[in-house]
Fold:
Amino acid sequence: MSDPFNAIRVWLAGLLSSLGLPASLVTVVMAVLGVVVLCSLILVLDIFLVWVERKVVARFQDRLGPNRLGPFGLIQPLADIIKLLIKEDIFPAGGDKIIYNLAPIMALATVLLLWAVLPITSTIYGTNLSVGILYIVAIGAISTLGIIMAGWSSNNKYALLGAFRTVAQMVSYEVPMVIAMLIPVILARSMGLSDIVENQTVWYVFLSPVAAVIVLLTSIAELGRAPFDLTEAESEIVAGFHIEYSGMKFGLFYAGELLHALTIGAVVSTLFFGGWRGPGAETFPILGIFYFFLKAFFFYWVIMWIKYSLPRIRIDQMLNFNWKFLTPLALTVLIVTALLDKVLPRDNMLWYSLGMLLANLVIIWVTLLILHSRARVERKRVAEPSPFASPERSGEAHPTSQPPQSPSPSSPAS
Amino acid sequence: MTSQQFIFIILAAITLGSAVMVVTARNLVHAALWLIAALFGVACLFVALDAGFLAVAQVIIYIGAISILIIFAIMLTRGVGQGTSTQTNANWGWGALLAVVFFGGLVWLLSLWSGFTTQKPEIGRAFDPLRQLGQALVSPNAYVIPFEVASVLLLAALIGAIIVAWDRRLK
Structure:
C-alpha cells in the first residue's frame, strides 16, 4: 500500500502478459503508458501553475488575483485557455511557416524532456540515466535552439534581437551552471540524479551552499526570467522572440516558461535539497512525491519572489555578473571541493560535512571582502563628477545653475 | 527483422535524409537546421548502441555549441539567410570527385570488415563505462598525455580569444 503507482504498474503488466502478449511488447506498452501518464500529469499541473503564478504575483503586488471563476478563481486558467484557443492565429508576412510553428512546440517539449530523469520518489522516475546531469545540460542546449527558431522565423527585427540576446545569455550562463552542477557529482560520485538523491544523507546545500546558489541563479538566467529577462525587455525590444506569436502558440511559450520555472525548482531541490528525501519517505515512497513537489514548489515560489522583487538588469551587467563573478566563483568552489574531497575522511560524514561547510563559509567571506573593496572603487568612480556635467570642469557656467526667476542676458540662446 | 534493426533503419533514414537536405536546401538557415536534425540522428544511434555519454556529448557539443555558432554566423551575415544564394561554386567538380573517392574508400574499408553479423553484446547494469572513461583520461598508463595536451591547446585558444578581443584603448 506504500507504493500504489508501482502496484498498479505490476498489476497491469501482469494483466497484459496473461492476455498472451510477448514480454518485449509488454515492456514497450508499459514504457509508452508511463511516458503518456507522466507527460499528461505534468501538463495538467502546468494549467494549475498559471493560477499559482497569477495568485502569487497578485499577493506580491498587494492585489487579490483571479477570484471570480470557481472557488479561489481556480477555473480561471481554463477560461484563459479557451480564450487563447479561440483567438485568431496570426502568421507574420514573410515568415517561415514550418519553423514558426515548430518553435513553440520545441519550447514546451524541451521542458517536458527534463522530467525524464527527475526522480519524483525513490520508486518513480523516468530513468536513472548514468549521465543525468549532462542530459539536463544537453536539453538546455536544445531549448536554446527553439528560441532561435522562433526569433528567426518571425521575420521581425525585434524578435531576432530577442533571440540573439537569449542565446548570448543562455550560452554564457551555461558555463558556471555546468561547473556548479559538477559539485553534487563530486560529492555523490555519480552523475545519475537518482544516485545523487540516494547519497544525500546530508543535503548538499549544507555541504556546498555556494554551488546551490550559483545553480539557482544561473538556472533563472537560462530560463530568462526577471531580473534576467532582457530577452523580452518591453522598453527596448517590445516582447523579444515571441513578439509575433498569438493565441495558443504564445500560450505554449508561456506555459513552457511556467513549467520550466517549476522544473528548475525540481532540479535544484534534487541536486541540493535531497529531492524526495524527508521523514518516512524511504519506507513509504508515496510520501516522497509529497516532499518532492513541496520542495519544487518552494523553489518555484523563490523564483517568483526574485522575479517580482527585482528590476531588470542591463545587458552589460548581465554579462559582467556572469563572467567576472559567477564563473570565477564557481571555478573556485569546484577546485576547493575537489581538493577537500580527497583530504577529508569520507567515512566520517560529520567531519566531512563540517569541513565542506567551513570551506564554503570561507569562500563566501573572501568573496564578500573582494566585493566590498570593488564596490568602494566603483562608488568613488561614480561619485566623481564627469567632465560634461560639472560647470567647473567644462569651464563655463551651466544654464540650469542660474536661478530661474532672473534669466541672464547671456542665456545659451545665442 | 528484429526490433533493433527496425529502429536502426528508421534512425539511419532520418540521419541520411537530413544530411541530404543539408546540401540541397536553398535557404542556409534551413540547411543549418537540417544539419542539427542529422546530428541528432547520430546521437540517437549512440543511444541505440547503449553509449549514453557519447549521445549526450554529441548533443551538447554539436547541437548546443557548433550548430548555434553556425546559425549565428548565418544570421549575422547580410542576405545569406534569404534563400537566394547559389548552391555550388566553381570547385564543385573537385568536390564531387573527392566525395566519390572518399565514399569508395569507405565502402572498400567496410567490405574488409567482418563484424556485420555480430550481435550487440549485452551490457550488464553494473558496468559503468563513464567511470572507466574518467579513470582512463587521468591514468598515466592510458590517455593522460593526450588529455593534458588537449587542455593546453584549449587554454591557448581561450587566451588567444581574449587577446584578439582585447580593447587596447582601455589601457
